[in-house]
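ok trying this again, last paste got cut off
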Amino acid sequence: MNVTDIFVMNHADMDPPEFILWLDDAATLQAAHPLISTQKDQWAPGEVQFRAHKEAISKAWERASALNVCSTKELDAARAAALEDVNINASYLVLRAKHGKDDAWLHNNGYQAKEKTKRIHDRSVSAVALNLKAKNGPSIGEVSLTWGKDPGAGSYQLQICKGHPQGDDSFSDYGFLKKVRTVVGGLERASWYHFRIRSIGNNEVGPWSEPVGIIVT
């Protein structure tokens, strides 16, 4: 699994204002990501470095604009440093997803997923809701989720709600998963969380499972 097979890595082609906005958005998303914000190794660049690069590029761009030039050595150096950290960050996320067999690392992190040829399934997704089960562990602040396999599914969409859901808007996407099990980490202890899942097939989706609630220990 290569980073360029997963993400659209077009950051070098962005002009400075576009790159600045991307860095800011990616930093915000990764700071709020349930896995990246709690389990990312300190050596890997991320939110802090993205915000620092954003400031450096912004200042260099302002100076270049004041000189009425498209680029300066300062701006080129700031962009190059940012691009290096972006590439390291993206590669790190792909490696964590592969090592942990958890595609949640690849979603809602600022990167645009590369479109893949959709797999055509011989079967339709099941019209019966999946049976989702939740239990605490294996570690503190983690919940293990399992559900039945749907032969017609190419992936499964998992959503999460902190507290008690008050309708569909209470849930937010956690990720699209290939396996029929996952571990959700970085949860607040002694708090209620509710989860639901559905099958994703060839241009169709299955019904949402009944929300499953659990108090995190």
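PB: full thing came through this time. The chain is about 35% helix and 20% strand.
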